[in-house]
Write a structure and sequence with these properties.
heterodimer, A: alpha/beta, Rossmann fold, Helix Hairpins, two-stranded antiparallel ribbon, elongated, B: 80 residues, alpha+beta, SH3 type barrels
């Protein structure tokens, strides 16, 4: 297998990605360029006897040193020295696209030109003389239609021809005019002497041109005072001569060259007029309609994501539930095992909690991909730009922040569309303040616990608004302090509206989901285990209450009641056995010989009653019938009738069985549960997490929190929803969810509305779940920013919550 | 950037929809100038104004390519 490395370059919107997809299919790999957040896409293509590694460079308009992407593209070409560079040109926009080509020519790299969207050009009546173009630019020119996969084979043939040296044409360096050429030559001479090595690497002429253009990067590399002062001197001379700095003249001359070449090689027959794209735009970017249309589309995207996403989420939840059961079955029922707990609660629970979001994220990315590929995003960014500008953010920041209302994770991933590093980092840091979906259970628990019904809506709205305001304020602050710097002036190409390719979208979605699973999953797995350990260890061996004694006294009482029940029926069995029979143990029944008929009767009646009740419950659930409705009442009547009939058979037995089913058994189970929960609460207090909760009390006090809330907050670090579950454990309510009445009552007893509000405030502002931190780390390629986000937000949360609490207490707001 | 012509005094913002003008120069720092140049906005480029609604987006056509420009940028572009 012969190996070739190819770099794909070209203007944004020229169809580069489509061609990349065509050539590499699913054999792609996405990462980050070291040290930067710009995506690096690589893929492999096999053609004839060649293995071709294809790197998709960021789309750029030129190779100056003004943006990260350009520098990356440039450095890749210089450092990695790919065998061939394929410059993808938008045929209907040729002149502008060729500007980048001239820069490649200056670098002197092996080039292949792909004249993409050849069909659109043809439809517009533009004709190309491929031979002449090839002659001017010194490279094979291959017409392609990316989104129909045409021309790929020819492209590959050309790549191989250039890589193996079969393609002979060598282009002339572009002549920039006598004066400029003069100076370029002079500079070339100087640097060849002084910095021979670097010259060999970069090419002396290219360096000379770049120096004359005042290119920052190249200036840094050729740092000798002599060289630089020479260059500056000559630049000044040229500026005096032409009235413009050299880089402008150079740009001018390049376009002159392009223009000349196109005059000879391109025939344009039809004038393009007001196209369909323009028509759509006049509506979409309309001053009045623009924002509503945008908000409408975003709402649609949201709805789609969360409604379409719900069923698959349910399946995944079930999958993990089933998985837990299977794992649990490896141990004998009821046994306690550290490994078992680790696997089920720690790993399956933790990882499952994150994977369950996959459908949502996939759908969101699908929607964004469609919007982006169709060209709408460019318009949207512009529409929101004015508003965002006042906040100090870029128009493109709006979309990630909007997504953040659902989940911060896809929101942060969506910031990739921001080119300006500062804007991007600011947006990433601030997005978690847009209250995400996982915090909703917390609000749903606390608001009804502390506020009257008529304030439910307003309180929730308040929290969300506080989040938005915080985001705006923090964005402004960050932008004016840490990331001072002008926002990029708004110049953006409006690509014509296009129908996105299905293939492109699918590849896009596949990519994102795989990444989500892999990266977020590994970190979350690790942290889940740590948190599991912290909430379960150290284990208490000596308890405050003698649970054993309490349990056995409850047992005894249960058996007594069962025994007396049996006596009433005239059965003289050991209460243990009696209990076993009533609980449905068939073996126990089989071993009895006395009074067999009576016992059979009891068991049969029991199952009839249970069957009738089950019917009732299932019907209600399946048909979704609500209490208090006529249907409900009629079903209740039906149930009552059925039970009457059963009773008719043997009233005495019926009464006894009903007493068991409706009183004795439930009360027994409830008591058991209470003890379990109390025990668990004690264990939690003893565990590492509980102790940390205690330790944190001094910090928690100023906010009005106690150690219990502290423990719950530690759990919430894993995932915000865990807060509610942990509060349940801490208040020994057992498995709690936001509907839990008892938990609400306990909260009401322990805290007051001010504290309730502070809890919500803290949860809103403080660090997001660890999955989000993990994604921040991945997207920014450094732990630094992830930590800044974590620590910064938490500290901010503390300051604000403490202030609110203190001021509130002084003003005595919210006290009962 | 040195204005060579009396005619080159009009900022792009003042050009009406549908009109065609020629770019003279850009009153801005090198960074912006280069950026604009690489997108096709060089001296001598023919610009057709597609949309210029008060406070709405400013859209121009250069060659066969549509560009949206922020107001700040548009102010700095001088045409004749």
């Amino acid at each position: 297998m012969k190996k070739i490395t190819v770099a794909l370059a070209g203007n944004p919107n020229s169809g580069k990605t489509t061609i990349f997809n065509n050539l590499t299919g699913t054999r792609q790999h996405v990462g980050n360029y070291p040290g930067v957040t710009v995506e690096k896409k690589e893929g492999v293509c096999r053609y004839q006897e060649y293995e071709i590694k294809i790197v998709d460079l960021p789309g750029t308009y030129s190779l100056t040193a003004y943006s990260t992407e350009e520098i990356i593209a440039r450095n890749f070409i210089i450092e990695e020295k790919p065998d061939v560079i394929v410059d993808i040109l938008d045929a209907s926009n040729l002149q502008r696209n060729l500007y980048l080509t001239t820069q490649f020519m200056e670098l002197g790299v092996p080039l292949v030109l792909a004249l993409n969207m050849a069909d659109v050009a043809k439809a517009r009546g533009i004709k190309f003389d491929l031979e002449k173009l090839s002659h001017f630019f010194g490279a094979p020119v291959i017409p392609t239609v990316g989104n129909r996969g045409k021309g790929m084979d020819e492209l590959l043939e050309a790549i191989i021809a250039v890589a193996t040296g079969k393609f002979k044409k060598k282009h002339m360096p572009i002549n920039y005019g006598k004066e400029l050429e003069n100076e370029i030559n002079n500079i070339e001479k100087i640097i060849s002497e002084k910095k021979k090595n670097e010259c060999r690497k970069y090419g002396a002429r290219w360096v000379a041109i770049k120096l004359l253009e005042n290119d920052e990067e190249v200036r840094r590399l050729f740092n000798s005072q002599e060289v630089l002062s020479e260059v500056d001197e000559r630049a000044r001379r040229l500026e005096k001569l032409f009235g413009d700095p050299p880089e402008i003249i150079l740009a001018d001359r390049r376009y002159g060259f392009i223009s000349g070449a196109c005059q000879e090689a391109v025939r344009s027959t039809v004038e393009s007029r007001y196209t369909m794209s323009d028509r759509i735009d006049s509506i979409v970017t309309n001053r009045v309609l623009g924002i509503p249309i945008f908000l409408g589309l975003m709402y649609l995207v949201f709805q789609l994501t969360f409604t379409l996403g719900d069923p698959p989420m349910g399946w995944i939840e079930n999958l993990f539930g089933w998985l837990s059961e299977i794992v649990a079955s490896w141990w004998p029922a009821g046994s306690e095992s550290a490994l078992k707990s680790l696997l089920i609660d720690g790993i399956i629970g933790g990882v499952g909690g994150v994977v369950v979001f996959l459908p949502n994220i996939l759908l969101l990315f699908l929607a964004i991909a469609v919007l982006e590929d169709s060209g709408y995003m460019a318009r949207a960014a512009f529409i929101m730009d004015r508003v965002m500008h006042k906040i100090g953010l870029h128009g493109k920041s709006f979309i990630p922040m909007l997504i953040g209302f659902g989940c911060s994770i896809p929101a942060i991933m969506a910031t990739r569309t921001l080119e300006n590093e500062k804007d991007r980092l600011t947006t990433i840091l601030v997005t978690p303040l847009m209250s995400c979906g996982a915090r909703l259970p917390i609000y749903a628990l606390i608001i009804p616990a502390f506020f009257p019904t008529k304030l439910y809506g307003p309180m929730l709205w308040t929290i969300y608004v506080v989040g938005i305001l915080m985001a705006i304020i923090m964005a402004k602050v960050i932008r004016s302090t840490l990331f001072k710097g002008a926002s990029t002036p708004f110049v953006m190409e409006l690509p014509p509206y296009r129908l996105p390719t299905l293939r492109g979208i699918l590849i896009h979605v596949w990519e994102r989901s795989w990444l989500y699973l892999k990266k977020a999953g590994t970190i979350i797995l690790a942290i889940s285990i740590v948190l599991w350990a912290a909430t379960n260890y150290p284990k208490k061996s000596v308890y405050e209450h003698d649970y054993g004694k309490m349990l056995s006294s409850i047992e005894t009482e249960y058996l007594n009641r069962v025994g007396s029940l049996g006596e009433k029926l005239g059965v003289t069995l050991d209460p243990q056995v009696m209990a076993a029979i009533l609980e449905g143990d068939k073996d126990a029944l089989g071993e009895i010989s006395t009074r067999k008929n009576l016992l059979d009767e009891i068991v049969r009646m029991e199952s009839l009653i249970q069957e009738a009740k089950k019917q009732f419950m299932t019907t209600i659930e399946v048909q979704g019938i609500e209490e208090g409705t006529a249907e409900y009442r009629s079903l209740q009547d039906q149930l009552a009738n059925t039970l009457e009939k059963i009773k008719g058979n043997n009233p005495k037995v019926y009464d006894a069985v009903i007493a068991y089913l409706e009183e004795i058994k439930p009360q027994y189970e409830e008591r058991l549960m209470e003890i379990e929960n109390q025990k668990k609460a004690e264990e939690l207090a003893y565990s590492l997490a509980g102790r940390i909760g205690h330790l944190l009390e001094p910090i928690l006090r100023p906010m009005g929190f106690d150690w219990r809330i502290g423990t719950a907050l530690i759990g919430a670090f894993a995932a915000k929803e865990v807060f509610v579950a942990q509060m349940g454990i801490v208040y020994s309510v057992g498995e709690a969810d936001e509907e839990s009445e008892t938990l609400r009552k306990r909260l009401q007893a322990s805290y007051n509305p001010l504290i309730g509000f502070c809890i919500m405030l803290f949860c809103l502002i403080s660090a997001p779940c660890m999955a989000t931190i993990a994604i921040t780390r991945r997207e920014t390629n450094s732990w630094k920013w992830a930590m800044v986000q974590l620590v910064g937000l938490t500290v901010l949360a503390w300051i604000i919550t403490a202030s609110v609490y203190q001021i509130g207490s002084i003003l005595e707001i919210g006290f009962k | 950037m040195k204005m060579q012509n009396e005619k080159c005094q009009i900022p792009l913002t003042m050009v009406g929809e549908g009109e065609r003008v020629k770019l003279c120069g850009v009153n801005a720092g090198r960074c912006l100038q280069c950026r604009l140049a690489s997108m096709g906005l060089v001296a001598g480029a023919e610009i057709q104004v597609v949309r210029n609604s008060f406070r709405g987006p400013f859209v121009v056509k250069v060659g066969n390519c549509r560009l949206i420009l922020g107001r700040g940028v548009t102010h700095k572009i001088m045409v004749e």
